[in-house]
Amino acid sequence: MSIDISRFRQEPAKVRLSAAAFDELLGITNIIASSHQGSRFDTAPAHLNPLHAPHLNAEFNNIRSMVDHGSHVLILEGLKVDNLASFKWLVWTFGSLLGVPMVQNHLDHKVIEVYDRGGKSIEEGARYHQTRQGAYVHNDGVSDPLPIDYLILACGQKALLGGESILIDASAVYAELMAFPEILEELKCDFFFENRGMAEEEKLFKAPILSFSDEGVPLIRYFRVYIESAHLKAGVPLTVEQNKALDFLDAVLDQSSVQQRVLLESGQLLISADNKFLHTRTHFIDRHLPCAQVNDAERLKDLNRYMLRMWLRKP
Ligand SMILES: [Fe+2]
Hints:
There is one protein chain. Helix content is 28%, strand content 22%. The chain is built from seven helices and 16 strands. Bound molecules: fe (ii) ion.
């Protein structure tokens, strides 16, 4: 069987909420923001009453359907606001209406700020979102046995230079690897994974890198550095066959035939089906020196490269 993988190289579809749906989203955002007291912004999820927000409800259903059953990824445009506080509220409201936000770290945060803190590297134990490193293709749902249904990456500001997103459909990878059945078999076996950054207590678990949905769609779980680290911690070194399978997988992930590239602009949200879709970014250079914390009063246009990330489960 041969699969035409050229279809996987098409640019992700760009979608814009209608003016009516965007107004409904802003209305819900204002309610959430004005009733907020004290705690972090990502604690109380927004709720959508289809009778009160019919346009938004219909357009959310369309977005879910495109990501679930279509291209597995899309870019939503036009979520433009002036300052960081407004951006956080808008993204939180949007995300918590699209799906159920998942906890992403040991502090119970459901929205993660992605920007360079100027600290440790990934190899030194930092999580990816705290660095400006590129190069490792992965999906985000590797730190928890349960997958992520929707990954949202919302761009507040792009870098001065670089920071392109590289997007790879797991189906394209599978199609390329069909020429190497023994590699596919190895990837379908269990590997060790770790819960890096998710809890104070370190936990390892086993899962395959490649599996399939009930409909036969290839599902992926891959972040090589985390897998190598988990195998070290488990005291179970990767076998020669496992390393070979990872090398084959990495070689395919490096091929332009499977990659789509996109440079997210301020106000654009990337939404992907995380367990069907890999991503990475290219190395980037910022305008200003890195800092450990960004003030909510900052205007988006004054920031270094800045993204908000959410992990969602289906409602
Ligand atoms: Fe990621």
